[in-house]
Each structure stands twice: as C-alpha cells, then as structure tokens.
Predict the 3D structure of the following.
Amino acid sequence: MKTKIIKISCIYFLLLTSFSFAQKLSKNEKKILKTIEANNTDAITFLKDVVIINSGTMNHSGVKKVGMIFKEAYDNIGFNTKWIDMSEVNRSGHLFAEISPKKVQGKKLLLIGHLDTVFEENSPFQEFTMVNDSIAHAPGGNDMKGGDIIMLYALKALAENGLLKNAQIIAAYTGDEEHSGKPISISRIDLVEAAKRSDVALGFETSTGFNNATVARRGSSGWKVKVKGKRAHSSGIFNKNVGAGAIFEISRILNEFYTKVKGEEYLTFNPGMILGGTNLNLKEELSKGTAFGKSNVVAQTAYVSGGLRFISEEQKEIARIKMREIVSNNLPHTSAEVSFTDSYPAMGPTKGNNQLLQLLDRVSKDLNQGGVEAYDPGKRGAADVSFVAEYVDCLDGLGAMGNGAHTPKETVNLNTIEDLTKRTAILIYRLINQK
C-alpha cells in the first residue's frame, strides 16, 4: 500500500511539474512553438537543398548560390537583405539580413552563421544521405548549415506571428568562416560594424547538446620560426667554427616550447609543418614545401609553422613573450626569428555572457528540455562570434547537433532541429522584449 501511495505521489509531482513549466510559456510563445512545428518539414527540406550545393570556402560561386537561397528566404519574411562582395580578399562574400524599425524595443540582436564549409569542389563527400530515420551524412550539415536553418526558421516563426515589429535583428552569414580572407580588417569589418549597433550576439555554430552552450571560445594565432645555420661538412659539426646547424637549433626551440611554454590552462600550440636541410622550397601560402639535404652536410636552413590557441589576449601575449625569448637563445653559429599572425581573437567568459546562458537555461527548462551549462572552451575551436565579443554579450553553440564535423563522416541529427529551433525562437522573443 505504501509503495502504491509513493508511486501515485511521484506521478502527481511529475504532472504538476510539467504543468508548472507549461504555464511559464506566454500565449505568444505557445503560438511560436506551433508555427515551428508546422514549418519543421519545410526546414528539413531546406537543409537538404542547401547541403547538396557545394559551398567550400574557395568555391566562390557555390557560396554565393547558397547565400542567394537564404537571401530569398529572408526577403520573404520582411528582412532587408544585401550581398557583400569579398573578392578584394579572394573570398565570395557575406549575406546580411536586417530588420530595424524606428522604435526599437528590447535587446538589439546580431545572429551569426556561415555559408561556407570545409568541403571544396574536389571533395568526394558531396551528398546528403540518410543513415537512419533521424541521422544523415551531410557535408556541412552540422557545421554549419543546420545552424543556419535554425536561425532562419526561428525568425520565420516570429515573423509569421507578427512578433518582430519593434525588434532590431541582424542575421549575418559570412562566406569564409572556415578559411577567412586576409586581412581580417576587411573580411570582418561588416560583422564588427553590425556588432557595434547591437547589444547581444548569438552564434549558431555546432551545438554540443541540449545541456551545453558556449560562453567562451579560445582565440587562434599563427606562428612561424625560421632558422639559419652554417653550411659545412658534417664532420665539423659541434666544433667552434661550424656550430650546431639549423636542424638542431629548430629542434631545441620546439623542445623548449614544449617544456617551458606548455602547461597553462586553455593554452595550446601545435607545430603543423616542419622542413629542414641544405635548401628549402617553401610555399607558405599553400602550407607546403620540400627540403633537400644530405647526411654529410650540416643543415643551413629550417622552418616550422604552427598555431596557438588562447583564452585571453593576456594569455596570448605572455606565451608570445616566452616563445620570443626561447627563439633568441641560439645554439652556436645559428640564428632564428619567430613571427606571429593574428587570426581569431578570444571570447572570454564574461558576466554578460553568463547572464545570457542563465536566460537560455530558463528557456530550456520552460520547454522541458533540461538545464543548460557552459561548455568547456578547451574543447571548442575559434569562430566568427569571437570577432564581436569585444562589443557585445555573446552566446554560441546554438546550432544543429551532429558528429564528425570537418570529416567525410559528418552527420546532422534531423530529429533535434525542431526542438533547437523552438529554444532559439523563445530565447530571441524574450531578448527582444527584455526591458
């Protein structure tokens, strides 16, 4: 009898809890959810249509073709759209869609996606193929055309219910996130300017699950070390006239990077390519080259290039200082120089970012989707949202779920698109009505 009473009490509690959550949704929010449910089949079809169009970063026509499909969709829901040509930096361009009434209510939003993928025209991975009733192999399906769809269909649901009349929202789809055009001052100027007119940025890069979102992302920087040694017969290596040679010197540098710079949380650096010998044929812009050398000749030149990841500008600068000091402490008869190139800035875990996370957490619980916690920034790469983190509060990782991004086995989970779109739409609705 006691067991039966406990079971009845548990059922009553679950029903009461569910009813309590349902009551937290306003009349307008319930309308939004119904619209998303009605539009979900179209959203999945839209995703299939854009996935099968190759839009590798350097396939400029393909990137623009996908952009024009999204442009038409935004035109149809009342946004003002423009294509921003980026041929100046050898990239296709960006699509920006905006609504901006005279009287703005609530937070001004910048939503960020990207049109390009890592799969270029010569990639064998080009098709959308169902694995089962919910999972599809799809090039760029979760990184990030699925997130692009979530952005669009969340805004579509709000627009179809007449809930965007007093909202300022900019939906920005860059065309070169996977391989950004240089200089960044040109390829990201429009994104930065949009951020300066906004209060909040929401990024729709790959979701890490219903229970996580991204309040911090590491920045990325490139580095190169070039070494010169004294060419001589190998029988003379180590003596006072010949010294150590370029390959020993570059080996010393890398070893000291590993032992003296490594260790700080969220700081990583990786040498991606190394060459050394008598002569090098280096093609830096293509990240490749060849080396010629013989075992009886002391190497006179060496080169290594790599990447640096960091959680703050301060962490980046401290690491660079240590690397410069190591590079300057040369072995006999060698010289070395290190250079750095900035790519993506860091997006730190600010108070404002965490407040956005708390709002998303509340939305998710109100939808009975469970709580949402901050994702480990050490497990995420850089993204376009980092470029605007200096100007606005940011939240990322709101896109589609899937696995294997950047590989020929990339998948997207179609059964989660509807719930993630609902979460996004309610989050946007509450932000644009926030006092």
